[in-house]
Amino acid sequence: MNQSRINRVIENMRQDGLSQILVTAPASVFYLTGAWIAPGERMLALLVKDDGSAVLYANRLFALNGNVEAPLVEFDDTDDSVAILAKAVAPGKIGVDKFWPSQFTIRLMEARPDVRPVLGSAPVDRARMQKDAGELALMREASRLNDEAIRRTIAGLREGMTELEASALYLANARAVGGSGCSFEPLICFGAGCAEPHHASDDTRLKKGDAVIIDVGLVYNSYCSDMTRTVFFGEPSPEQQKVYDVVRRANEAGRAAVRPGLPMKLFDRAARQVIEDAGYGPFFTHRTGHGIGLEVHEFPDNSATSEIIAQPGMVFSVEPGVYLPGQFGVRIEDLVTVTDTASETLNAEPRELRVV
């Protein structure tokens, strides 16, 4: 059990007027207990109270007894797990994790009519938002490894290969450089597929003149990386060059704007303004970025509506893009961490226009 993290969560609970919460997302349970558990359809819950206590409720199938440094209440498949948990819950308001299945929340409400569930993810989200020195070291290394994996993948692009083959190449490279897995399924697309921000890799074959978007991330010691580079297979057209330059400058502006004490919406505005000024505003169709850490998408958003104030230790992406339907698209993504005075970019892979 990481008591210092528990204490930070409890401080956040008090700020939110919560005396008890249920932490159920596997990444958040890991963050607080050091145990990474995939519960499947079975109940998993860490009950945290403002008296400093935290008790983990878990199925015996997870084999946690003696393997987790946290007070543990176990149950079998033949037990009513919610009824066991319900006995420990205090009357009144309880914060419930946004990811807890409704089958458990509703049963808890039925078992304890004197309990009122409210959304209760924020205390843990805000604690996870600011990474400590150890977490930042792992994220720097994850990004360094991802730099190398994407470098090898770009070098391996060949005419006629499919997007799925390029994705498989990245997966092999991610393993080869030391990644334990991927943050998400690789998003690698060619040509017109690049105009779809979340295009799923398919059997489209690479040909001369194609833009190539490579949006990939690997996991290192449980922490995620995420980066996007756009390259051109053969000499790009004048418009491809123009769009690339606009997106590159937007990425630079978004990263340069990051500093502590400012609302995150200003970082989105800095990147978006470059694209709008170039006349491509309607073709930048998503937020500028997202938080990242134990999960590839974490609180908070780096978006036009985010009022979250940047604080040292936060890590998030800056990933502006321009997508011209039926033609091509360009996205350039880097991870940044907020420092005491400005920001640090975790990726070193070059951003200059590249022809392969």
Description:
The chain is α+β, with helices and mostly antiparallel strands and 356 residues long. It has 9 helices and 19 strands. Helix 1 (3-15) crosses helix 5 (122-129) and helix 6 (133-155) crosses helix 7 (163-177). The mean pLDDT is 97.
Secondary structure tally: strands: 19
Query: Considering DSSP H and I runs of 4 or more, what fraction of the residues is helical?
Result: 25-40%
Describe the largest sheet.
Answer: 6 strands, mixed
How confident overall, as mean pLDDT? 97
Strand numbers in spatial order across the main sheet: 4-3-2-1-5-6
Determine the number of helices (DSSP H or I, runs of at least 4 residues).
Answer: 9
Kindly provide the radius of gyration, computed on alpha-carbon positions and rounded to a whole number of angstroms: 22 Å
Terminus-to-terminus distance: 49 Å
Question: Would you list the SSEs in sequence order as H and E?
Answer: HEHEEEHEHEHHHEEEEEEHHEEEEEEE
Structural class based on helices, strands and sheet pairing: alpha+beta
Indicate the overall shape. Answer: elongated
| Share of residues in strands | 15-25%
Low-confidence stretches: none
| Assembly classification | single chain
Compact summary:
The protein has helices spanning 3-15, 26-33, 81-86, 102-111, 122-129, 133-155, 163-177, 238-256, 265-277; strands at residues 20-23, 45-49, 54-59, 72-75, 92-96, 115-119, 181-182, 187-190, 210-216, 218-220, 223-224, 227-233, 289-291, 298-302, 315-318, 321-324, 328-331, 334-338, 343-345. It is an alpha+beta fold.
